[in-house]
Amino acid sequence: MKRVLLLEDGTILKGEGFGYDGDTVGEVVFTTGMTGYQESITDQSYNGQIITFTYPLIGNTGINRDDLESISPTCRGVIVREFARVPSNWRMTMDLDTFLKQKKIVGLSGIDTRMLTRKLRDSGVIKGTILNADQDLEKALVKLKSTILPINNVAQVSTHAAYPNPGTKRRVVVLDFGLKHSILRELSRRDCDCIIMPYTTSATEILNQYPDGVMLTNGPGDPKDVPEAILTIQQLMGKVPVFGICLGHQLLALANKADTYKLKFGHRGFNHPVREIATGRIDFTSQNHGYAVDPKSIDKSILMVTHIEINDLSIEGIRHRQVPAFSVQFHPDATPGPHDGNHLFDEFMDMMDVYKEAKNA
Amino acid sequence: MLIEKEIVDEETMKRALTRITYEIIERSKSMEDVVLVGIKTRGIPIAKRIAERFRLLEGIEVPVGELDITYYRDDIVKTDKIVKPQLKFSIENKQVILVDDVLYTGRTIRAAMDAMMDLGRPLSISLAVLIDRGHRELPIRADFIGKNIPTSKEESIKVQMKESDGIDRVCILKHE
Fold it and tell me: In what helix (H) or strand (E) does residue A17 lie, and over which residues does it extend?
């Protein structure tokens, strides 16, 4: 079936549809990962976005049971250059086409993704729509221009009720802004006793769980759209160790008087080099974010910058000076991507132990 | 037969020292009057590495002293050859952080504290160690610990550092 991608600036790209048959609107972004399309598509940080894969062949290993990052993915569309119609992998349970149909996600193949990516790099991320080619595109463009994309992204993907993910060791409250399952996997691997709570949970309710630490997860959209969480974090700091990832990192920064801004085309991919300032060590990291913390806004008496991106020198990690709280913009949980940052979960474990010992001493 | 088991590798050591650096920053009101004093052989490179992290992170030069505590040991007979140790800087009103590789009985640290008191009146003394292996014989505890390693008294801990041994690692040695 012929489908087109229509961008807000009037660009029309014709292609072949796959996956769910329907129209979709979203922010068109690109990711540079060469593998891991399953994890990316199911990553809730892509809520409301249409993902362009720069890697030319997508779908060749199908979809497996183990690598899902959410149960109900909420990205709005998938754009690929070539869609592999005959996938093969020993773990495969279905092909990508079937999966996208199941999850009601629109796919579009046969697009010159190199040209599209270059456009996105020049203009910045842009509103776009995927629709069937037989429609009146001029009308569709008018409609697209007047469409206001929702800003309640976190509310769409956060859990509505608290639930446990039991373990036998440290108690961690996971504040869910649209978490990737792999964050829970990493905590489970360390036998943490997790309680996952909605992002609207108050600090009192969180502290009533007597946590050893609080994890602020990744999530979609602009951190400034969730002001209630900023207040919660301010009330938690100093009372319990805090570790933030991605959106959680931006929220920790906002809670400490720093500011965030929207990146032109974001960091999405797994080949982002990040320097740990204290040691000069370079980690390759998995990233997926459209906003970043403004370096100029950091109050050096409150926060210190611990990690920076090599490519554009943007802030990738911060740490509070007085209380146990730190965060990183990249994904130490990887999936997909390199596991270089995985030790940060161990640092979080150490931080909880040191804090507990100091409190009991 | 002596069995050697590696318990800390280069990466783990690196991370432990980075964490100690962060913790020192977290617990020090002001970094301006912090000085590091490395104890004899392997406390010195550890102190220097922590100072290097301060330089990269904060752009500050934290003085690093080198301390030989032999004069203050409680298990040797003093001879004329053993002289009181000196530091290149004054510790008067400074936040002194003693740095050593392994904390065991606490006797070395007792000696180091005596040395500090002889040299002046520091604002405070705290202790950072790479390894805490337990079995204290004195009421002493570390403020910053790289890694807690429960041991038996029959075992011994071997710390190796690139500066002196060409490799970064910590091993536990045990007779079989």
Answer: strand A12-19
